[in-house]
Amino acid sequence: MEVKLTEDRGRLAERLQGITGENVMLCYQCKKCTLGCPSAYAMKMKPHELMRALQLGLEDPVLWSGTMWICLSCETCNTRCPQDINILKLIDGLRTYYLNRDYYNPVRELPMMHRLFLKLVRRFGRIYELGLVFILNLKMVDPLKDTDMAMPMFLRGKLKFFPHRSEGAKELRKVMSRLEAMEEER
User: Fold this and answer.
1) Angle at which helices 7-20 and 47-56 pack, to 10 degrees?
2) pLDDT at site 55
Protein backbone atom coordinates (compact mmCIF):
# COMPACT_ATOMS: atom_id res chain seq x y z
CA MET A 1 0.00 0.00 0.00
CA GLU A 2 1.40 3.36 -1.00
CA VAL A 3 0.72 6.30 1.28
CA LYS A 4 1.05 9.80 -0.08
CA LEU A 5 1.94 12.40 2.50
CA THR A 6 -0.21 15.50 2.23
CA GLU A 7 -1.01 18.37 4.56
CA ASP A 8 -4.22 16.53 5.53
CA ARG A 9 -2.19 13.60 6.85
CA GLY A 10 -0.23 15.74 9.32
CA ARG A 11 -3.35 17.14 10.95
CA LEU A 12 -3.95 14.07 13.14
CA ALA A 13 -0.45 14.37 14.61
CA GLU A 14 -0.97 18.11 15.12
CA ARG A 15 -4.35 17.57 16.81
CA LEU A 16 -2.84 15.01 19.16
CA GLN A 17 0.08 17.28 19.95
CA GLY A 18 -2.41 20.03 20.77
CA ILE A 19 -4.29 17.71 23.14
CA THR A 20 -1.31 15.98 24.77
CA GLY A 21 1.75 18.12 24.14
CA GLU A 22 3.54 15.04 22.76
CA ASN A 23 5.18 15.02 19.32
CA VAL A 24 4.63 11.68 17.54
CA MET A 25 7.06 12.76 14.81
CA LEU A 26 9.98 12.08 17.19
CA CYS A 27 9.38 8.31 16.98
CA TYR A 28 11.93 6.54 14.79
CA GLN A 29 10.39 3.06 15.03
CA CYS A 30 12.91 1.31 17.30
CA LYS A 31 10.06 -1.01 18.48
CA LYS A 32 11.15 -0.94 22.13
CA CYS A 33 7.63 0.10 23.14
CA THR A 34 6.14 -2.96 21.45
CA LEU A 35 8.78 -5.35 22.78
CA GLY A 36 7.95 -4.34 26.36
CA CYS A 37 4.17 -4.07 25.98
CA PRO A 38 2.32 -6.78 27.98
CA SER A 39 -0.84 -6.40 25.86
CA ALA A 40 0.82 -6.19 22.42
CA TYR A 41 -0.21 -9.78 21.70
CA ALA A 42 -3.89 -8.71 21.77
CA MET A 43 -3.46 -5.59 19.63
CA LYS A 44 -4.19 -5.51 15.91
CA MET A 45 -1.86 -2.50 15.70
CA LYS A 46 1.18 -2.74 17.98
CA PRO A 47 2.41 0.43 19.78
CA HIS A 48 5.19 1.16 17.26
CA GLU A 49 2.72 0.62 14.40
CA LEU A 50 0.28 2.98 16.12
CA MET A 51 2.99 5.63 16.32
CA ARG A 52 3.77 5.23 12.61
CA ALA A 53 0.08 5.37 11.68
CA LEU A 54 -0.27 8.58 13.71
CA GLN A 55 2.76 10.04 11.93
CA LEU A 56 1.18 9.22 8.58
CA GLY A 57 -2.26 10.47 9.66
CA LEU A 58 -3.95 7.11 9.07
CA GLU A 59 -6.99 7.84 11.20
CA ASP A 60 -9.24 4.98 10.03
CA PRO A 61 -6.70 2.18 10.64
CA VAL A 62 -5.99 3.64 14.10
CA LEU A 63 -9.71 3.61 14.94
CA TRP A 64 -10.36 0.16 13.48
CA SER A 65 -7.44 -1.38 15.38
CA GLY A 66 -8.96 -0.73 18.81
CA THR A 67 -5.42 -0.41 20.19
CA MET A 68 -6.24 2.68 22.28
CA TRP A 69 -8.85 0.66 24.18
CA ILE A 70 -6.72 -2.48 24.63
CA CYS A 71 -3.78 -0.58 26.16
CA LEU A 72 -3.39 -1.42 29.86
CA SER A 73 -1.94 2.03 30.74
CA CYS A 74 1.01 0.33 32.48
CA GLU A 75 3.51 2.91 31.12
CA THR A 76 6.05 0.26 30.07
CA CYS A 77 6.22 1.89 26.63
CA ASN A 78 7.06 5.25 28.21
CA THR A 79 9.94 3.87 30.26
CA ARG A 80 11.42 2.07 27.24
CA CYS A 81 11.17 4.92 24.72
CA PRO A 82 14.65 6.35 23.92
CA GLN A 83 12.99 9.56 22.62
CA ASP A 84 11.09 10.07 25.90
CA ILE A 85 7.75 10.15 24.08
CA ASN A 86 4.88 9.66 26.49
CA ILE A 87 3.01 7.09 24.40
CA LEU A 88 0.42 6.55 27.11
CA LYS A 89 -0.40 10.25 27.04
CA LEU A 90 -0.95 9.96 23.27
CA ILE A 91 -3.20 6.93 23.77
CA ASP A 92 -5.16 8.77 26.46
CA GLY A 93 -5.43 11.71 24.06
CA LEU A 94 -6.87 9.37 21.43
CA ARG A 95 -9.32 7.97 23.96
CA THR A 96 -10.44 11.45 24.95
CA TYR A 97 -10.69 12.66 21.37
CA TYR A 98 -12.73 9.71 20.11
CA LEU A 99 -14.74 8.91 23.23
CA ASN A 100 -17.83 10.90 22.24
CA ARG A 101 -17.53 10.57 18.48
CA ASP A 102 -19.55 8.18 16.38
CA TYR A 103 -17.28 5.59 14.78
CA TYR A 104 -17.05 1.83 14.52
CA ASN A 105 -15.17 0.28 17.39
CA PRO A 106 -14.25 -3.42 17.22
CA VAL A 107 -14.12 -3.53 21.03
CA ARG A 108 -17.41 -1.81 21.82
CA GLU A 109 -17.43 -2.44 25.58
CA LEU A 110 -14.19 -0.61 26.31
CA PRO A 111 -15.19 3.01 25.59
CA MET A 112 -18.32 2.45 27.67
CA MET A 113 -16.20 1.00 30.48
CA HIS A 114 -13.81 3.96 30.24
CA ARG A 115 -16.69 6.46 30.59
CA LEU A 116 -18.24 4.50 33.46
CA PHE A 117 -14.87 4.21 35.22
CA LEU A 118 -14.42 7.99 35.11
CA LYS A 119 -17.96 8.59 36.39
CA LEU A 120 -17.45 6.27 39.37
CA VAL A 121 -14.07 7.82 40.20
CA ARG A 122 -15.66 11.27 40.02
CA ARG A 123 -18.49 10.22 42.33
CA PHE A 124 -16.58 8.24 44.98
CA GLY A 125 -13.04 9.55 44.59
CA ARG A 126 -11.85 6.05 43.69
CA ILE A 127 -13.05 3.07 41.69
CA TYR A 128 -15.98 0.97 42.90
CA GLU A 129 -15.29 -2.38 41.25
CA LEU A 130 -18.62 -4.08 41.96
CA GLY A 131 -20.56 -1.08 40.65
CA LEU A 132 -18.38 -0.93 37.54
CA VAL A 133 -18.92 -4.60 36.69
CA PHE A 134 -22.62 -4.58 37.55
CA ILE A 135 -23.50 -1.44 35.57
CA LEU A 136 -21.34 -2.51 32.64
CA ASN A 137 -23.03 -5.92 32.53
CA LEU A 138 -26.46 -4.27 32.72
CA LYS A 139 -25.59 -2.01 29.80
CA MET A 140 -24.32 -5.01 27.85
CA VAL A 141 -27.66 -6.81 28.60
CA ASP A 142 -25.96 -9.62 30.52
CA PRO A 143 -26.48 -8.72 34.22
CA LEU A 144 -25.47 -12.13 35.60
CA LYS A 145 -22.21 -12.34 33.70
CA ASP A 146 -19.18 -12.73 36.01
CA THR A 147 -21.31 -13.71 39.05
CA ASP A 148 -19.34 -16.95 39.37
CA MET A 149 -16.25 -14.87 40.22
CA ALA A 150 -17.96 -12.55 42.70
CA MET A 151 -18.48 -14.95 45.64
CA PRO A 152 -14.85 -16.11 45.92
CA MET A 153 -13.75 -12.47 45.75
CA PHE A 154 -16.23 -11.49 48.50
CA LEU A 155 -15.04 -14.35 50.72
CA ARG A 156 -11.40 -13.32 50.31
CA GLY A 157 -12.22 -9.66 51.01
CA LYS A 158 -11.13 -8.57 47.53
CA LEU A 159 -14.53 -7.14 46.60
CA LYS A 160 -16.58 -4.79 48.73
CA PHE A 161 -20.37 -4.75 48.53
CA PHE A 162 -20.66 -1.00 49.22
CA PRO A 163 -18.42 1.70 47.75
CA HIS A 164 -15.81 3.40 49.88
CA ARG A 165 -15.82 7.18 49.59
CA SER A 166 -12.40 8.74 49.44
CA GLU A 167 -11.79 11.74 51.68
CA GLY A 168 -10.46 13.71 48.71
CA ALA A 169 -13.48 13.07 46.46
CA LYS A 170 -14.55 16.73 46.43
CA GLU A 171 -11.05 17.91 45.51
CA LEU A 172 -10.81 15.27 42.80
CA ARG A 173 -14.12 16.44 41.31
CA LYS A 174 -12.80 20.01 41.21
CA VAL A 175 -9.61 18.89 39.47
CA MET A 176 -11.55 16.80 36.95
CA SER A 177 -13.87 19.74 36.23
CA ARG A 178 -10.91 22.06 35.67
CA LEU A 179 -9.28 19.54 33.32
CA GLU A 180 -12.51 19.18 31.34
CA ALA A 181 -12.79 22.97 31.06
CA MET A 182 -9.20 23.18 29.83
CA GLU A 183 -9.87 20.48 27.22
CA GLU A 184 -12.97 22.32 25.99
CA GLU A 185 -10.94 25.53 25.58
CA ARG A 186 -8.54 23.73 23.22
Assistant:
1) 120
2) 92
